[in-house]
Amino acid sequence: MKRFHLLAAVVVFVLSLLLPLVVETGYALQILFRIYLFAALGLAWNLVGGYAGQLSLGHAAYFGAGAYGLALFSGKLGVSPWLAALMGVVVALACALLIGGVSFRLRGPYFVLATIAFAEVVRLIAKNLPNVTGGDVGAQVPALFHGNVNRAFYWAAVMLTALAFATTVAISRARFGYYLMAIREDEDTALSVGIGAARTKLVALLVSAALTALAGALYASLFLYIVPDQVLSIDVSNEIAIVAMLGGAGTVLGPIVGSVVLESASELFKDIFKEAHLLIYGVLLVVVVLFLPEGIIGTLAAFLRRRALFGGIKAGAKGVAAD
Amino acid sequence: MDLYAALQAVINGLLTGALYALVGMGLALIFGVMRIVNFAHGAFMMLGMYATYVLFTRTQISPYLLFIVSGIVLFAIGYAIYFALLRPIHGKSDFMQILLTLGIGLICTDGVLLVFGADYHQINIPLLGKNLHLGSHISVNAPWVVSFGIAVVLAFALYLFVMRTMIGRAARAIAQNRYAAPLMGINVFRVQAICFALGIAAAGIAGGLLLPVFYIYPQVGDQFTLKAFVMVVLGGMESIVGAALAGLVLGVVESLTSLYWGNEWALAVDFVIFLLVLSLKPSGIFGRQRA
């Protein structure tokens, strides 16, 4: 069974890489890029929001750190683009240390509010320091790829998703992953059995922030130009969380499924709702909370478990009848 | 001269702060009785603005009377939303409640965007041109004085409602212990519905009162959601008096920040105060120790 899962993952990965041979229009590739990018972001968020159960609504800070890191280190200091992207990751890690250090001491709604406030402070600083960040006018972002960029960015997003997926699988099976889940289920009990909750959560946040920053750099480099209200907006934080919650927080496949559903839905409804495109996010959020509280994958898994159980009982009854 | 500028800023801050106070009290009331952080609070305030705007353009009645109508409309919306959406998830985790109200807020904001478009709207009333002079150096814009007066009266009324009426007592009982309250014969759902609707109506009324001095657009409420969070955290989460005081403080802090550092830093200062309070004194400045 495990071998089958691995095989399926490899097949999907290879097919994803081969997809540009069939899909050639730039527009379609950009939509696919978005789907994979948000799958990676959802997976990254899921480590903190899903496995550790800490609902962060401030991931735009790390996303923006990656985007602005690439733009500013390369644009202002002349560092080569790929190195600048890595330096953006370092900035995101520093943000995560600060944000995690303060907000992980808080629980429930206080934690959520603190993450939002931090991301907003970062956005306002980026807006109000035009000498450093370009302010509302924005900043130019160097190209990470040349030539057939749509294809290259698509591949990069697939690779990033694969990296985030592999990280998630590894963590979900490791002792570290069980620590995170223990903290999610009951933080006090986790503490009492000797799990260093603060440190464990912080490590998860660092991994999550690094992946998020890489996605931010990719996103920025595709658009070549960023402004604070775009990459640091609370809408980015919300979208990342919605992707993971819709698919199923705390599941390995959830964020990928969530991204496919959410990004396809927003693409489908784009012409109907025009600028009111967040309407579909709102509707999906309400639907998920009321009808699919464990997300698409979580609900599906529960359904399959029930059916397996029920099927087992029926098979048992048949066996009894045959006797 | 500099002193007058500061004094002027403090007065302007208090005038704005009274409206903030109304928004914050609504959020604190909802949090106290329901333990829900209402992420749609600013969106409801925005609905109050648009309701007043639509009524004003149709009837030309002063917004300082129309706010009553928009308050009633928002109360009805809140009551309906409570029973349709919030009651079914009663007792679910914080996450679910936060995500649900976030979703409701997005639907409100983008619903209005769909109907009214992204354009900025503004109304014009004769009162806007009038200024009241206090001495030779200080003057205040008349609409702000009127809205301040109304907001203070309403805030006091809300306080009396919570402290003196039977429903207010029931609400405080639920806030103290939501398991013991129903044993005392309190209909928790009904009281929660009324408090949720009242909290939203308070936000909507503040929106209506702000209409004459504000541009309105669908996302106008977003900043108020965040400001209301700051107020309730400063005020000690469920304390409506704390939230009201915090609203006044926030108004003055923003006004002084605008004066000395520039308008663009006002919101950032809000959040920095917020984070400092959260990390240093999470029970709030005006609040008692939380259990």
Helix count, DSSP H or I runs of 4 or more residues of chain A = 16
CATH C-level class of chain B is: Mainly Alpha
Uncertain segments of chain B of ≥5 residues (pLDDT<50)? Answer: none
DSSP strand content of chain B: under 5%
The number of distinct helices of chain B, counting runs of at least 4 residues, comes to: 11
Contiguous runs where pLDDT drops below 50 for at least 5 residues of chain A: none
Q: Average pLDDT value of chain B?
A: 88
Rg calculated over all Cα atoms of chain B? 19 Å
Sheet with the most strands, sense and barrel status of chain B: 2 strands, antiparallel
Would you give the CATH topology of chain A? Answer: ABC transporter involved in vitamin B12 uptake, BtuC
DSSP E strands of chain A, number: 2
Spatial arrangement of strands, main beta sheet of chain A: 1-2
Number of domains of chain A: 1
What does this structure look like?
- The complex is a heterodimer of chains A (323) and B (291).
- Chain A is mostly helical and 323 residues long.
- Chain A has one domain (23-292): ABC transporter involved in vitamin B12 uptake, BtuC (Orthogonal Bundle), CATH 1.10.3470.
- Chain A contains 16 helices and 2 strands.
- In chain A, strands 1-2 form a two-stranded antiparallel ribbon.
- Chain A is globular.
- Chain A starts with a helix and ends with a helix.
- Chain B is 72% helix and 3% strand.
- With 291 residues, chain B is mainly α.
- Chain B has a single domain, classed as Orthogonal Bundle (ABC transporter involved in vitamin B12 uptake, BtuC).
- Chain B is built from 11 helices and 2 strands.
- The N and C termini of chain B lie far apart (48 Å).
- In chain B, a hairpin with a 3-residue loop joins strand 1 and strand 2.
- Chain B has a two-stranded antiparallel ribbon with strand order 1-2.
- Chain B has helices spanning 2-34, 41-59, 63-86, 94-116, 142-164, 166-176, 180-183, 188-210, 222-235, 240-260, 266-280; strands at 131-134, 138-141.
- The mean pLDDT of chain B is 88.
- The interface between A and B is large, with 43 and 41 residues.
